[in-house]
Structure to design on (113 residues):
């Protein structure tokens, strides 16, 4: 008789990620690219901090809006780092868990520089 191990409890986490070197279309000059960075916040339920970070990364990579915005050359891809993972008492009720929210900023280095 086989017995399965109990699953680890799912805990709520807030994960903050920082993206940089994102080439996207300039909203003021649509035919031109601009180098951007972003902060992304993602709320997830996970067994631990590591899994929470992995789930947040996956949410970014699966986000169709982010995919369509990124115009990087394959030789110069964007970079994303986990900045912090915080365990919460509960997930906020006013968010779509697992879906990242973004704060964009222009990076100092111009394209081609």
């Amino acid at each position: 008789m086989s017995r399965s191990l109990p699953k680890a409890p799912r805990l709520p986490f807030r994960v903050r990620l920082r993206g940089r070197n994102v080439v996207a279309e300039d909203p003021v000059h649509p035919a031109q690219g601009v180098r951007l960075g972003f902060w992304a916040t993602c709320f997830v339920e996970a067994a631990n901090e590591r899994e929470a970070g992995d789930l947040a990364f996956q949410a970014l990579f699966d986000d169709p809006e982010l995919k369509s915005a990124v115009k990087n050359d394959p030789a110069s891809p964007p970079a994303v780092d986990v900045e912090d993972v915080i365990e919460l008492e509960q997930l906020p009720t006013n968010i779509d868990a697992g879906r990242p929210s973004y704060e964009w900023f222009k990076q100092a280095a111009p394209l081609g520089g």
Remarks:
- The helical segments are 49-62, 64-69.
- The two ends are 65 Å apart (CA to CA).
